[in-house]
Design brief:
This protein is of the alpha/beta class. It has six helices and six strands; from the N terminus they run E-H-E-H-E-H-E-H-H-E-H-E.
């Protein structure tokens, strides 16, 4: 299913992203696996991770510095014949979101909208957004931003027009 496909992972250097990359590279043979994140140090560390070293001799793994808040950069990263996007980028720490509410909204809500817009624009086939249990009945700003993001991704299926893209949310 993922063999010979081009896959982009937003937040690809986070804990989920790193494990997902290892799982994909162990079980499938994607054409390209693009790690999209704004953390240069984590990208460097990932590039030098011994458990991924067997994949360094080919062109499968690609690293893009970028922020999901930056729609033009996101479109550039997806303009590589991307089949699947796994959207794992988010501000996830409840205290951080409470103390920096505007940043949480910009990343989790506006950034999510940018992923949707770029995916439609670039002809991505499937987008899977990661959610959280805190979005079910939110009592924190983080949970509220993830609830809004979830609703945007589900609603995006109504806005795709003639594009053949499917949006899903998983917890």
């Amino acid at each position: 299913m993922l063999d010979d496909k081009n896959i982009l992972i937003t937040g690809g250097t986070g804990s989920f992203g790193r494990n997902f990359v290892k799982t994909i590279l162990t079980n499938y043979k994607p054409n390209k696996l693009i790690i999209y994140s704004r953390d240069e140090l984590k990208q460097y560390d990932m590039q030098h991770d011994p458990s991924l070293s067997k994949f360094f001799d080919n062109e499968t793994l690609r690293y893009f510095i970028g922020d999901i808040r930056d729609l033009p950069r996101l479109k550039m990263a997806m303009d590589n014949d991307i089949s699947y996007v796994v959207h794992a980028a988010a501000l996830k720490q409840v205290p951080t979101a409470e103390y920096n509410p505007f940043e949480a909204v910009k990343t989790n809500v506006v950034g999510g909208q940018n992923v949707i817009d770029a995916s439609i624009h670039c002809g991505v086939k499937k987008v899977i957004a990661l959610s959280t249990d805190k979005a079910c009945s939110p009592i924190s700003l983080y949970g509220a931003t993830k609830l809004v993001s979830d609703k945007l991704f589900v609603s995006a299926n109504n806005y795709i027009g003639t594009n053949d893209v499917k949006f899903s949310v998983v917890r």
